[in-house]
Specification:
With about 120 residues, the chain is mainly alpha-helical. It contains 4 helices and no strands. The protein starts with a helix and ends with a helix.
């Protein structure tokens, strides 16, 4: 089937007429609904929302209350007392110092022998 330009032109003009009729019907419906429907189709630009200091305080107090309840229910089990810290005696410290000196002397001697 061969479609020529005249047939396509006629179809286009028919669709344009139908589109115009639909647009007219939509405009009439908008008028009947009032200006609120027209405004609903266009999103309104909103400014920055502000909150009073009293409202911020109420919100903060409510949040603190929620956190307090949450942490009360999640209390950690009672831990055992930490182990007493051990003290190193002066004699023990002296033995460690002497042993360290002996190890370093041995390391230096081994390095000197290797050279």
């Amino acid at each position: 089937m061969l479609i020529n330009a005249d047939l396509l032109q006629a179809a286009l003009s028919g669709y344009q007429a139908e589109c115009a009729r639909i647009e007219q019907a939509m405009a009439e419906i908008r008028r009947e609904l009032g200006s609120s429907a027209g405004a609903a189709s266009q999103p309104a630009a909103r400014g920055k929302r502000t909150m009073s200091a009293a409202a911020r305080k109420r919100i903060a107090a409510a949040q603190k209350k929620r956190w307090a309840e949450y942490h009360k229910s999640k209390q950690a089990p009672v831990k055992a007392a930490p182990a007493k810290k051990r003290k190193l005696s002066a004699a023990g410290r002296q033995r460690i110092v002497e042993a360290t000196k002996r190890r370093w002397a041995a390391a230096r001697a081994q390095k000197a022998a290797a050279q």
